[in-house]
Structures
1.
Amino acid sequence: MRGGRRSAPQAFDSAHGPRGRCAVGTTNSELVAGATAGDQRAWDALVERYTSLLWAIARSYRLPPSDAADVVQTTWLRLVEHLERIADPDRLPGWLATTARRECLRLLRRADREVYSASGVRDAPDDGPAPDAALLAGERDAILWAAFARLDDFCQRLLRVLSADPPPSYAVVSVALDMKIGSIGPTRARCLAKLRQLLPESEQLP
Amino acid sequence: MTTPPHPDDELAGWLASVLTHADPVPERLFDAARAAYGLRDLDARVAELVRDSAVDAPAALVRGDDLRLLSFETGDLVIECEVRRHPARVDVLGQVVGGIATSVTATSIATQGAAAAEDPVEAPVDGQGRFSIRGVPGGVLRLGCRLADGTVVVTSWTPV
């Protein structure tokens, strides 16, 4: 949860719990209709609802923070362009996830090319989580993080996207990661089992 | 009576909170995304990105070079661009085909640092539809072409 970032007073912000702040009350249809009609607050509520998902997708593809930021911003700018053409607002999160994934793949392919470039100026691909230890609340959290970092890429990617706030539906995860929707549940269970095995005995949950 | 949480959900919830703290969404990204709405242009037609040498072309064509070719299309109008990247800046050379353009503006949003869009940089278009815009800040770029009939075509936002 992002502490202290509920700043501007916004009509759509009133009913938010600590997690999934915008999940209650206002539907995507209402927000898309509002944003299409020119209501900045409706737009802001969409931003609040899905930016964490877009960030999680970009980071799950191991993009460095600067490229991940470009993906998130490009995705929002594309939505601004396409607002009038969103025919089915229920599919908005899927549209956002698809757009973000395509931009991630584009940047990854570009980065591949630039390995050959004489004067590549971009960041190297992120070779895994390396958090500031001080950011992690406690020793147990640091242990979990270290275990997560030892998971294979595929499990890290899936669990990273599933950890977005608010958590995405499996339909959205399916387009974000190009996975069959039916395989997400079983794969999540397998990845969590692997993660549990990587935790020391003392940190096993009951 | 409530059922206890599934151990998987408990572990996933713990992981989610750890990831959110360790790799948070940068605050400026929320600001930038909210500001993106201010760049909505209801009057302009959008030319979609249809070709990108960084992705489509054989690697041999672009190896060892910072030059990237982008094509945007809407209807019969095509905007072809060469984007050459320098540290923090890009030069855009291009040509508008299939319509008569009078001027081109480049709007760029730097996602590093300031969230706001930089002031658009405008350039004239010559008789063959060619234009040259140098020193545009790197980031996410949009070109806007003003056509002789008074309408405006903008390119889809593209990170450069």
2.
Amino acid sequence: MTTLLEEVPPPLAPVPGVARALRRRRRRPGGRLYAVLRIGGALVFGAVVVALVTTLVSGSSQAFGHFGPSLLWSGTYNVTKDQYPTGVFIVGTLVTTAVALVLAVAVGVATAAFLSELAPRAVAAPLSVAVDLIAAVPSIVVGLWGLLVLSPAFAHHVEPFLKRVPVLEWLLHGPALGPSMLLAGVVLAVMILPTVVALSRTAMAGVDVADREAARALGATRWQVVRTAVIPGARSGIEASVTLGMGRAMGETIAVAMVIGNTYTIPHSLLAPGATLGSAVINNFGEANPGLDRSAVVALVLVLVAITALVNVGGQLLLRARARATRT
Amino acid sequence: MTALAPGPGAPTDAIGVRRAFVRERARRSLVRRRLASRAALVVCAGALAASLAPLVGLVAYTVGRGWPVLDGAFLTHEPTPPGVPGGGIANAIVGSVVIVALGAAMAVPVGVAAAMFLLERRGRIATTLRFCADVLTGVPSIAIGIVAYDLLIAPGGLLSLGHYSGLSGSVALAVLMLPIVVRASEAAMAAVPAELREAGLALGVRRSRVMRSVVLRGALAGLVTGNLLAVARAVGETAPLLFTAIGSQLFSLDPTQPMAAMPLVIYNDGTQPFPAAQQIAWGTALVLLALVLVLSVTARAAAARLNRRAR
């Protein structure tokens, strides 16, 4: 043993220059410039997040100070007192998002099941790429189409037809105008559909093949495999896709502002025009006078950011739960 | 149970009868389940058609309405005053390119550097930043526009120019792109095998050099894809530009002045009741759509190409 130890070359430390270099490297892994670069990047990024939050909070503080917390559920619109019906906008946001989710989830999950499980690969692969590409269509183009094509079609054909459908007629009364909560929900559904399909498809593709084989071995048909093995296995991923789609639907502003009609009263039916938090901001910020008026609009933005952040955090937690579940 | 009535050759003992009964039940169940499977297939295929129809219809309609408007003059001329026929969107095309290019020039270096930070550090700070990136991705773009207005344009803002400018639109778009760039870059760099990095470090190579020669090179495909997708997303955004770049009728290359952008043209002209204005909106929508699709396809193609070369 002693001979072996004697054969080991002496440690580097006695050579003064090397020791200094080693010490320096330990202090700044990879040199000064690199440290400045990556820490600087992280700092700038952190600063952006902080600036975003503080600007919204300080910008809306005047309105919250003036109206108090009742600002959050106020239903009155009073131009001379710079008051906005936040409650109406929140209802509008929730209703349009609900319409969009009902449509997009039903159609989107079935589409994802078809692309991931049922269709032959030669069909599924190009269609999956098509859905992914369509997700890139800018929302302003969807809005333009909704305003100039869907809106007249809804006013003349779709809405009069839906009003005659037995159960739906309870939700749909009043004149068929075109711009409405229903149309906004449909436009939002078109926008979030690619998100729901893409994420659900990924979740379904991630289900263990052994689960499918087990169901198959018990005599399940292809659909039963999907229903009993794939969809339950991909459940948290599907839920995450729905939650993230929901966040997108709530935060979308420009397309909604183009098709919702922008009225500031509690809508009595899905055919009535309305307003969402986002569309109200777009329509009022430009004309808002500096001071309390503008602060009240910024308060709308803050409420919108808070709601979407909550939804998105929920979605991220679901995605993370799924990642943890698949790892174990 | 008529099928179970004893016929010629039918089992006569109790066990045989029972076995035939079970077999018949299984056969019926299979027929029923196969039928259900077939029906589900049809329903799901119908869902695919239902989800593709509006999306394909929207693209087809935009091409159909926009194509007749598109010609050399539309792409190279400035807009004419209302009522004067002709005119184009050259200012909006150039404005979009300048605003997005400046935004990317801000977001990409910062985002990639922050991704390096996340890659090198595992700890509470890194976890917090990653969480912030995820939440920031979901922040409505209108909120970013409003904050950019407050900080960069409103009198008394932190870095206020005092008037609308293309540059403030760039900053808003940069903030929009930043979380996408950070997360995509980190994912691309994390995909480089840790063994390669460790091999470099074991040779005594500096971390900065490992990052440059091993990680960045290995992650090039992912970096190009992620950043191009972020740019594609930013080009089509309207809400962050509404109260920052504000739009302009004039051709301008000066980002400190108000600038036109394609989404703003679509919004302003598309919401007017005049057919001539709506024509311009459709034409602009087609140009924007084509640009976004080219960027997305390029991003995917680049990823596939570089991946193949890396292998």
3.
Amino acid sequence: MKLKTFSMGGVHPPENKLSAREPIQALPLPKEVAIPLSQHLGAPAKVVVNKGDAVKVGTLIAKGESFISANIHSSVSGTVQKMDEVMDASGYKKMAVIISVEGDVWEESIDRSPDLKRECKLEPQQIVEKMKEMGIVGLGGATFPTHVKYMMPPGKTADTLVINAVECEPFLTADHRLMLERTQEILVGVEIMMKAAKVDRALIGIEANKPDAIEVMSRALTDFQGIEVIPLKVQYPQGAEKQLIKALLNREIPSGKLPLDVGCVVNNVGTAFAIYEAVQKNKPLIERVVTLTGKNLAKTANFLARTGVMANTMLTALGIDMPADTAKLISGGPMMGKAISSLTIPVTKGTSGIILMDAKEARRHKAQSCIRCGRCITVCPMGLSPYFLKILADKDQFEVCESERITDCIECGSCAYTCLATLPLLDHIRYGKTTVMRLARERSQK
Amino acid sequence: MSSVIIYSVVTMSVIAAFAAMILFFVAKKFRVDEDPRIDEVAALLPGANCGGCGYPGCRGMAEALVAAADQGDISSLLCPPGGLDTMSAIAGVLGFAAVTQESTIAVLRCQGSCEHAPSKLTYQGPQKCAVAHVVFAGENGCAYGCLGLGDCVSACKFDALSIDEKTGLPVVDPEKCVSCGACVKACPRHIFEMRPKGRKDRRVWISCMNKERGAVAKKNCAVACIACGKCAKTCPEKIQAITIENNLAYIDTKKCIACGMCVPVCPTGAILATFEPPKPKAKEVAAVQAETADNAAVKG
């Protein structure tokens, strides 16, 4: 059978799913956590606790007040020490709440029993409220506040819920393990999301390199109505929402439009699990699965890590030190993740993995001159001309950048991955894109 | 034979007369009166077309100056490379009193060299400050300091900037800097500042842009401003040129008399001067130190 995939561009980097067989294990609690106030796309949340306050697991510590923002809850029980600036994956310092850990006391409202709770009696509106209250954001990496996706503007309706279980980034296995170990919970979560989006069809796209997940999920489907699991051909960046919709439904989103414009709501499979826990168990988003991996690591693992825990505690939990030949640390996947300068950065809602690379793997080749081979154009999933955008951004031709649709770039990095001249195309394009977006913002403010 | 010559001459004369009439009519009808002063002013400007004035080239500046003269005030316009001399000459042509605006020079507000702020990681991306600024905080971890990739050097049209290989920081050549302000615009971190040249070339400035708390700033860079406030205390009472805002001291050029008293008291050496600063009297230093220590204790 020919597997479905998206039609334009795409690459197939080595998969390197080293940790696919490691079951999810809980990460031991550290002495102190630093929970950043900006773990999501949009405005940072406003702190609602004071220095010296006692908090439990699940206590609201910061409230998302603007339209695109999300609540943040304490992931540990203990005392609020201070508000301080902590370096996060971006390399810049952001405000965070520092909490010292004392025991592990949870809020009474949270149902901690492992039983599956199938029935959901809430109305769609109440489900969306619950998502907002529990601080649910997209766990695929972009961390867009989920409730905003379900507050559909008048006149727009969805007909399909698309669940992204593709995990097209090499190395990462967090979603893969979650599907194997929390299958029923995920499907109940999908059911709740279908109710919230008022649709009767849900498609779960899983890449063919996870046959066990496809099998387990398909087998569990017998109890559920309207949900379908669709195996997809392995192709990066299939996890991007536009590419996923194209692959599953053969619908194309016009430039500058959203999935809702073609009748789709897209969420990650990890988000489905978080929504299950939030709606059925009253549990805020305080922990997520994080993959710790690297070719030079003796052991790899998938941790269920609380937010605000420093990334280096994962190495300690495995009982290993950072290998001496480590030359690069990446937060996220190797294609779209960010290089970080140290492991003392907190795990946030968007941290899908931490990857360690040795010098040979991390080496960047010397950038040569572009030979106009056109490979970057062939692989660009958005149909852009990366080599041309790079030249334009280099020459500060931002108006031409804009008319060449630089803002359509999804920053997947396929162009730089495939470049024969080993040019850092994406770095240049990212500079052009941020500048164009800033100029557009300034223009709209006038 | 002669008829051919006569016909040609007559035909050509008629055409010439006709063309002359058209040209005369066009010249009368579509005549543009250009202010002769524009040419005079343009001749006085340096002609480098650097754009430092904010207008497209020297001709554009000349037009703007004449237009401003018609409005009755040219004081808001300045040709930075030409400086006072040029502006005074132009003012003379346009019938104004000589301008007294002070000329300025670009000043680098960062000392985060390899020695003071050692690198914690290696950046291998595109060698352009603007790109690096989008990607990360900086090799030494300071999110406010110089990235050292030389966007300012390529922006300078007067060859006044160069990267010092030892420190990795740009250096301003005071002889060549015409204070056009191109480096100020080119730097994504806004480290360059245009400051008045000062009397007898005496200038004092805080050479740091870091707005982090003292301890954090000091961790990344040995010469960071830690906003201890000693400089503000040392500044003579009548002057009070130094303010501290967002964990960063700033010397107001309008108030500063360039006495240099603040330079030696700075515990991190973040204040720079273009002259040999005075050695403070031991008593004064002790008094200031005691006072700041008291304040720190109260705050702490």
4.
Amino acid sequence: MNLKQLQRTIFTDLRRAVRQLPATAVYTLIFLLVSLIVIKNGEKLFFNPNQTAQVPVGLHMQMDDADDEAGFALVEEMQSFRETLQIKRFATEDEGLKALADGEITALILIPDDFVNGIYANENKPIRIVFKENNTMEEHIVNDLLLNSAQLLGTAQAVEFTLRQVNEELSVDPDETDAFVKQINANDLTYVLTREGLFDPENYDNLSHLPLSKQLAACYTLLVLSLLSFLLTPFYQGRKTAYVIRQRAAGLNRFGIRISELISTIFLLYFAYVIIFTSLMIAGFGAKWTSLLWMIPISAVIGLFIHVLAYTVKSSAYANLVILIGIVLLMYISGGLVPMELLPRFLQKLSSFNPVYGLIRLLQGIMY
Amino acid sequence: MKLILNRFLILCKRSLKQPVNLAMLLALVLLAVIYRQIPSSEKSMYIPVAVLCEDTDPDMQAAAEELIQKNSIFHFYRVESREEMYRDIMQKKANSGFLIPDGFGKNANYPNPEIKITVYTSPSSLLPSLCKDEFFNLIFRRTAVRAMKEKAAEASIYSGFDLTELMKTLDATYDHFQNSTEIFRVEDASGGVYNDLTKEEKAELPIRKFAGLFIFAAGMIGIATYLKDTDERLYTRLRLSERWYMRSLHIISAILPMTIISYPVILITEGGNALALLGKVLLYAAVCVLYSLTLCLVIRRSSVYQKILPVILTMSIIMGGVIFDVTQFEKALKVLSMLFPPYYF
């Protein structure tokens, strides 16, 4: 192979590639715009926030009992109640039952008279819950919520009853027992009211090696670069046979021509990555600076793929369709469009045979 | 009229010979057959929650075990690793996840301990506070007795007693009361019928969206064949009105076979009012024809069209609702999606 001729051809091809820069920039920016919108809305698009509506329930309790009112206000302030129930007060039990029959409410909670004082007196007057059908999701939620609150109360009572019974058996002074029980109850109340402090809320992203937005940013970078093949295949196919014959006559074989074309493809793909890199920085999904270096071999791999495609499928129109179907399909089954974890299990198993999956993982590692 | 019909039939044949058109038609029929073969299954409406207990504290192990056995609207299940929990939350197999880290149990009876239970939620997590309260309830049952015993060990009122014996008595009495009917309870109105909380479900395939995309793509291919013929100077001797008629004929002949196949496929898979569906499919096909004709007005050369076509098709795939749920798009994205007909189907 004539090396001087190869050098000349590379420069000629690079000059051709420079003329393609505006079109490359336009293509990259169009695909990038859509990609950035998807990346930004990834959580909403993939997780489809489906918050359940509050369940409407009725409540009947004696309005004149201050202790019951205070107790109810305390329960109503609980986060789980606020999140789940929409409570409507009824002056009489009959009014509540009528609303339940009319479908206005899902359940009716009936608080017995003197309920709070009854607990202090260890009478434990039970709360009644009246359901209409007793087998809907909403009714189960109400049931769970009230069972849960009742069990919290029951645990606190079990502690109090334990202390009183043990102290009685040990003949501890009743006044001292009262004082001690009061201290324990206060502790329990503080513990229950500050229970949020036991939990550390985290987003699912913190379990992953990469947050969803960054996973998507890497995947869509690969997608945008691959879609540039729409522009690059005509670039290869635009070669006239005369040109190839001329190059051969000058001492450059087919391999040399391909090398030269590949270098200009890497140049165009790298240029596109610089645009993507800058846009990601501006959009707040900034990639590592070292990715600018690692992107050169990645561009070579993508370039090689485009190159093979351009020379396998002769017609530009068909090459475009093969690219469109092939890339979209390959990217989809390798977690490029939708994160791998969201795909069905059988597709996840198939991913180990998919080279694009490896490329995506590599790109994620390089970029973040 | 005979000439129009002849030309139309020839163009239809030509369109059906296109491998891409054939592939799309076959894919549509195949999707319908697959959909018919998928049996609908009864799915539980439990809200699944993953639990990972890394703590070796026996109380926390017991709390996690009791949680898993619990009968509630949440179905708590054990996972073996953080990776498994992440995978399950991402795949929506788990609605949320609880991680009890090693060392949590040691200080669990104090408010705001240094080591906390991590609650992992995603944007689609349901009732996270109620779920947390159910977990707290089981922890409280164990930490309440611990706190009581700790305070009793320091209290002066028990100074004369054997502490080991006292602790044993406190434990036994607490257990007795926890299992007795003397403490406050709400009558469990539906605890026994949680298993009945199911719904009939069938795996979803976006067949309608695929059909919409294919009808649109067929129109695009129709334009491509017309422009190719124009580039080959086949219609140079035709008048302007005749060229319009040829354009329309190309597009309609490409769209029609796809529309004819799409209608029964959607009808079989989705059911519903056959006449209303026919109206919708025909209206959509008409929109695609108009869209293609408008595009033909702007683009006159095949080489330019070859460059634009991939962008239009890629955008239609991403924005048309085949991959993403268009209802979840934000305003700007929705407006952009409206530029591509598959959005409306």
